[in-house]
From TrEMBL:
SUPFAM superfamilies registered for this protein in UniProt: Probable bacterial effector-binding domain
Domain of life the protein comes from: Eukaryota
Gene3D superfamilies given in the database record: Regulatory factor, effector binding domain
Pfam families: SOUL
Protein name: Heme-binding protein 2
InterPro entries per UniProt: Reg_factor_effector_dom_sf, SOUL_heme-bd
Organism annotation: Rhynchospora pubera
Family from the record: Belongs to the HEBP family.
Coiled coil: none
């Protein structure tokens, strides 16, 4: 006969209650394992590839930003340095000359004997050659010479076009800085790695045409052709000096920061001498 003792009934029902509690705990534990299991799974080959690809892309973008910032910093430093050398009000030396003939579209100048530092360049365009040569010459005047001497910036920066002197008989370029008076006789020797040449120009007669704006690949040939046409219609027709190694030169007088009223010139060597005043009777000194 079953006893109705409460204690006995309680003891009989305990296993049933404990079983329900354990089932509930097991369900909660399984849910927790289901949430945590993905965190501890070993990545597959494809996931490793995806993660590696994402890492490489992030690294490439970071390196690209770093290089772009480095280039921008160098360019800014160069432009600021040039601007500091060409600030308004500071005297900038130029080669001295005498105007011996003037017409509406050109003039003839007699330049005295001058010394220049030149940077030969085999770049394929006027603009690239000018930048390439200017950078080396700028290092030179900033102290990249055997004496570590700093020279003042002068004007103009002259880029001479030498036909047939480049690869496969293409044109070559010489970018030139006029040397300030202090160093005309004995300029500092440039460091060998700059590949610069010290030039001494004898007195010479030059036909000059002025033009504004920036000197570019697209306009400098046209300006040279305009000068040749003007000469052909004047008393200076057939006066081009064929003994000159330069077909023509582009002279730039202004800092790259100057946007308006810029002054550029096309130079072409013409026949004549200092003794004859380039063959003119009217003389105007500068």
């Amino acid at each position: 006969m079953l006893s109705s003792d409460p204690v006995t009934l309680h003891q009989f029902n305990r296993p049933i209650m404990n079983g329900r509690s354990k089932m509930k705990q097991t369900s909660l534990f399984q849910d927790l394992i289901g949430e945590l299991l993905p965190l501890f799974q070993v990545p597959t080959h494809q996931s490793r590839v995806d993660r590696l690809g994402a890492h490489l892309i992030r690294t490439w973008k970071k390196e690209r930003r770093r290089k772009a910032m480095k280039r921008s910093t160098r360019l800014w430093f160069l432009l600021v340095s040039i601007a500091a050398l060409l600030v308004p009000g500071r005297a900038t030396e130029s080669p001295q000359y005498t105007v011996v003939h003037t017409e509406s579209e050109f003039e003839i100048r007699l330049y005295r004997s001058t010394a220049w530092m030149s940077a030969p360049s085999d770049k394929i365009s006027f603009e690239k050659a000018t930048k390439h040569g200017f950078h080396r010459l700028f290092q030179y005047i900033q102290g990249a010479n055997l004496n570590s001497t700093r020279l003042r910036m002068t004007k103009p920066v002259v880029t001479s076009i030498v036909p047939g002197a480049g690869a496969l008989h293409s044109s070559a370029y010489y970018v030139r800085f006029y040397l300030q008076t202090k160093f005309q006789v004995s300029p500092p020797v440039p460091l060998p790695e700059l590949d610069l040449v010290s030039d001494k120009w004898a007195p010479c007669c030059v036909a000059v045409r002025k033009f504004s704006g920036f000197a570019r690949d697209g306009n400098m040939v046209k300006e040279a052709e305009k000068l040749a046409l003007s000469l052909s219609r004047s008393s200076w027709a057939n006066s081009t000096n064929f003994d000159s190694t330069n077909a023509y030169s582009i002279a730039q007088y202004d800092s790259p920061f100057k946007l308006f009223e810029r002054v550029n010139e096309v130079w072409v060597d013409v026949t004549g001498s200092e003794e004859t005043g380039c063959g003119s009777s009217s003389v105007e000194a500068y």
